[in-house]
Amino acid sequence: MPVTEPRRRTPKGNDVAICVKASFGHVGGHRLVEWFEIQRLLGISHIGLYATPATHRDTRRTLARYAATPLAELRTVDYVDGGSVDAHQQTVGSVAIQDCVYRHAYTHKFVAVYDFDEVRFGFIR
């Protein structure tokens, strides 16, 4: 079977997508809202979010509220064995980032990868 590479199509307004690693535990609601609004002000066109079984319900609620807008998309990443080993957090985080990058590599001009405690003001082409 031949391998084909999809053509890069960047519709106007789809310049930058952000991929955020999977969320574990609790991230404060005020902090999340501030982070999302900063991204919106910076002109980010899409944010890929990932929740896990360990994501706190308040955090999940805030993520879901933004996922209900065109700005963000929320997906859930499950553990293979119920999450009994700490190494699963790294594995799940890597899987989420790879999934997000592959989803947006051909729909956006740039794909940035960072966390809720980071804000970028410039991008390298």
Describe the structure.
The protein contains three helices and five strands; from the N terminus they run ββαβαβαβ. The chain is of the alpha/beta class. α1 (29-41) packs parallel to α2 (57-67). Strands 1, 2, 3, 4 and 5 form a five-stranded parallel sheet that branches. α2 (57-67) links the parallel β3 and β4.
Q: Uncertain spans, ≥5 residues at pLDDT below 50?
A: none
CATH architecture: 3-Layer(aba) Sandwich
Count of helical regions = 3
In N-to-C order, the SSE pattern is EEHEHEHE
What sort of overall outline do the alpha carbons produce when their principal axes are compared?
Answer: globular
Number of strands: 5
The tally of structural domains comes to 1
Span between termini: 33 Å
Write the layout of secondary structure elements.
Elements (H helix, E strand, L loop, with lengths): L15 E4 L3 E3 L3 H13 L4 E10 L1 H11 L4 E5 L10 H18 L5 E4 L12
Helix pairs in contact: 1-2
Tag the structure with descriptive keywords.
Rossmann fold, 3 helices, 34% helix
Question: How would you sum up this structure in a few lines?
Answer:
The protein contains 3 helices and 5 strands.
